[in-house]
Amino acid sequence: MMTLGPDTVMGTFLLFCRIGATMMLMPGLSSTNIPMQIRLFLALAVSLALAPLLLAMARRAVIGTESHAMLWLIGGELLIGALIGLLAQIFFLALQALASVVASVVGFSGVPGAPVEGHEPTPALVSLITVSAVIIMFQTGLHWELLRGLVASYSVLPTGEMFDTRFGLIQIADQLSQTFLIVLRISSPFLIYAIIVNLAVGIVNKLLPQISVYFVSLPIILAGGLLALYLNIQEFLGLFTAEFLYWVSTG
């Protein structure tokens, strides 16, 4: 039976720092629509649930540590947790950026909708794609895989070690590069559609300068974009979920 002493309390608090920072930035839970109190209590509940698995390592880091060194430990745990949550969030930020491009191609970019994931209003099509990806993440249990990776991070970055800033920056840069390439590959049908449609509209505009081809072609571009979205949205989200699952399982 575990005794509730100062080392146990401080060790649990160190676990809460990393787990709480991750959950505050992870996809789905970082939305402004979820009250801060709910996120706080959820992070506290997960920290207490994982404490029996991880508390021994945290207590070893706490024993014999001075007060000023404890502040460095807390700051390091917060940075590690924020790094893990940010690496997962980059996937959905890249998806949102390319979804904005898709909305522009389809013709829905001019009408901003209510903000769902962030503070700024985004087109309804962007919200549809990003929210669908978040729902699929929870529906397929990828959030549990993310928590499993968070537990595994204690074997790679044990409690008590200083946070390596260079390592964190390299991880963020690599993640940005990989995720934007992945999302760019997934959204390539819409980009090809945009190139072909704009080239065709430009040629028709040159052949018929007396007709405002741009305004006439808007309904056609919109209909074609919605048809392309209807035909590709399932595979679009499926490939994104598969890539995210691969990163959670191996990263």
Walk me through this protein's architecture.
It contains eight helices and no strands. The chain has 251 residues and is mainly alpha-helical. The protein has one domain. Helix 1 runs parallel beside helix 3, helix 3 runs parallel beside helix 7 and helix 7 runs antiparallel to helix 8. The longest helix is centred in the middle third of the chain and has 40 residues. The model has no long low-confidence stretch (mean pLDDT 81).
The geometry reads as elongated
Unreliable parts: none
Q: How much strand?
A: under 5%
From the N-terminal CA to the C-terminal CA, the straight-line distance is: 35 Å
How helix-rich are the residues, as a percent range?
over 70%
Question: Measured on Cα atoms, how large is the radius of gyration?
Answer: 23 Å
How would you characterize the largest beta sheet?
none
Total domain count: 1
Structural class: mainly alpha
Count of beta strands: 0
Mean pLDDT over the full residue set: 81
Count up the helices. Answer: 8
Helix and strand element order: HHHHHHHH
